[in-house]
Amino acid sequence: MKKILAIALLVCSLLSLMLSNQAFADGPKPSPPKPKDPKPGGTPGHKDAPFDGGLILLVGAGVVYGLKKAHDSRQQGT
Fold this sequence. Notes:
Layout: H1 2-20, H2 52-77
InterPro entries: PID_CTERM
Protein name: Signal peptidase
Region (Disordered): 23-51
């Protein structure tokens, strides 16, 4: 029984290795076209840094931290 399981595992391993090469058969994706007119002050081919979502999270974390510090200082004072 152990011999059959070992052979089945070996066959499955070999099949998965042989079939995994098919996943790489497509080749690289074409690069996106470069913009013709850059934004004023920008450089061609570079996108502006997205800071909207991260900035909101950073400000929110700062507000929560400040509120916690204020709450803790009030509790120590009384």
